[in-house]
Amino acid sequence: MTTQHRHILPDLAAMEALGQRIAARLQAGDVVALEGGLGAGKTTLARAVLAALGHSGEVPSPTFTIIETYDAPPLRIAVAHADFYRLDDPEEALEIGLDDYREGAALLAEWPQNAGGFDHEPGCLSIRLEKRSESGEDGRIAIARGGADWLERMP
Ligand SMILES: Nc1ncnc2c1ncn2[C@@H]1O[C@H](COP(=O)(O)OP(=O)(O)OP(=O)(O)O)[C@@H](O)[C@H]1O
Ligand SMILES: [Mg+2]
Asked: Is 81 helix (H, G, I), strand (E, B) or coil?
């Protein structure tokens, strides 16, 4: 993986801007692995990426459905947005058909480690979100690391 790129995100506008930079570089087959604890901002960043790819309207959190899909067009590329929080075993990701959902699409994955993790994939961009304070009101820090395919296009 690439060396770490650290972004300070004081507010939602900064989160939005990071989402736009990720979206501009995203290709089918990539994974954006959104790491960080409860309320870290994973869904918020996923929504920013989807909006920048051309999605308008709601982006339900996939906490219960596990995977939500977005077609291209209207998006520039198709996206599968997953939240693996509820998986008990990485095998379940295959059982729900993750490989089929990923065909020709980019994957935005919350709680990626619950699906076995994606760091070994050259197309994986890992974004770890952390709160800057315990109150959670003072923004976030994002630590980005990319696989080999991301070397020339880190956000
Ligand atoms: N950069 C930011 N600065 C301030 N608040 C933020 C920032 N990013 C996200 N938030 C806020 O943090 C809250 C939680 O965000 P979000 O639901 O995206 O977290 P999550 O990581 O998806 O949580 P979960 O693990 O429950 O899925 C939201 O109210 C959101 O507006
Ligand atoms: Mg979420």
From this structure: strand
